[in-house]
Amino acid sequence: MFRLRNLAHAYNGTEVLHVPLWEADQGAHRLVLGPSGSGKTTLLHILGGILRPSRGSVSVADQDLGALAAGELDRFRGRNIGIVLQRLHLIGSLTVADNLLVAQYFAGVAQDRKRVTEVLAGLDMADKAAAYPHELSFGQAQRVAVARAVVNRPRLLLADEPTSNLDDTRCLQALELLQGQARACGATLVIATHDQRIRQRIAEHYLLEARA
Amino acid sequence: MNLASISLGYLKARRLGTALNVLLLALGVATITLLLLVTSQLESRMRRDAQGIDLVVGAKGSPMQIILSSIYQLDVPTGNIPWREAQELARHRMVKKTIPLALGDNHRGFRIVGTNHDYVTHYGGRLAQGRLWQAPLEAVLGADVAAATGMTLGATFLGAHGLGGGEGEHLHEAHPYRVVGVFARSGSVVDRVVLTDVASVWAVHADQYDIKDVARVAELLPEEGKELTALLVQYASPLAAAMFPRYVNQNSALQAASPAYETARLFTIVGVGVDVLRGFALVLIAAAGLSVFIALFNALAERRYDLAIMRSLGASPGKLMLLMLFEGLLLAALGAALGLALGHALAKMVGLALAQARQVSITGAAWVNEELWIIALALGVGVIAALLPAWRAYRTDVAATLARG
Q1: Per the CB < 8 Å rule, is A74 touching B13?
Q2: Contact between chains at B313 and A78 (C-beta distance less than 8 A)
Q3: For a designed S-S bond to A182, which of A187, B140, B203, B279 qualifies (C-beta 3.0 to 4.6 A apart)?
């Protein structure tokens, strides 16, 4: 589960985000909707413990993120939160398998090749384990990015605009991929998007309004 | 996965840049290593060859030339000194011991040195085969000589007039030498000379006196026919150092030369060249450091998303800092390893070239403790080059970077 309360964030004194209260149960699937510039990415970063909000409290999996020291927050994020970014950002100098192992390494959990193989196999990517990211199609790279986000069995899986620039078929595939993987590890799924096609699949959402 | 394998991944991803940086650093390290190996071996060999010899007396001329020719067997002698005057010096009360040296011929570039058994004792020469010479025209080969010429016990050879290096030398065909012994390798000057009796040298050069019985040449030769090239002198007391050289130099025909002083002077002269080369090598290493810095700094821009992603995966800012430092260190370690290997290989090549010239032996297979300092220097350069990039990596603003794309 997660809970945001009286949350506000400001850049250089200008408030860019305000969330009085938003929460969801463990395992729930939620959307963050809103036009571009409405603070979707900021909200996602705050949920992911990448950004500390100017005000308010954030708790993820019963942990108040504000109560964690910097190092503790890093470790908590590595172990409990998986993030899939719009531009994937796989590490280009490492193989697919190493991109997953590196997630285990930085999270400070045991490096488990069996788990890596298992996650890749679950996404039909087992045969690409030794490939480098530049050898993959976008769809394959997205699977690897999702695999990297779930390899540590996170409690919360975040995805930023996972379906923009995808045709209808691929959009649906990407969504199913995220939902399937979130379900497989019991993670709460939050997708930030302005893609109306996803709304038809996940009804519950938090709507951010455009700011002047 | 760990910092090492991640760094290695990055280095492999840009092989050309990595190779150039490693090579640049290796060249600097190799130059310093080569200098270190050559100068340290040269110094230790020269110190060893001059050990226990307080003074060398030769014919009037350059003291440095006397030392080079009679102790190190490198330069040509300044001339000859009369046997009788050498005898007088040997009997002087400030003198404990003298060793006579008579030069003049060579065999295939190796000098034939006429002396007595004290010379062998002084340099700790041990026989590998046979015995020491007992009669004129018996010769004992240094280890390098035996190896280069392939001669063994019983072999005979001719001395060529002069000290080697000349073309079409005159051979002393009337007086062949016979090999009666071969020395074991000692690392001293004995390795690369042919030792024989002083009387052998007299016999070979006594054509105008028409001596038939070579074995009795020392008795038969008139006084004026007996000459030495130099006399190695050991003092009876340290006080002699102040008095004896002046006493020798009063004699218009003789010149005293102090091995300690001349060797020190030689190293001061050579030292300038060594310092210039060392400075050049340090410039190379500094340039390599700068190049590593530029490479890492550029890498920061390429990798800002990677660094942000690593942070989002749970890496602390300190980890990212270590990652950059580690990469600098890895480059430096590769450069140092390659440079040391290259330096030793070059030293071996210099050694081979010097062996061709029948000169001082230098090996690439020696380890000098100062090389640890070279490694430390190279690694230090790597770390310093990585400091600013590492600090930048530490300061990565994850949210701002990821929000941009």
Answers
A1: no
A2: yes
A3: A187
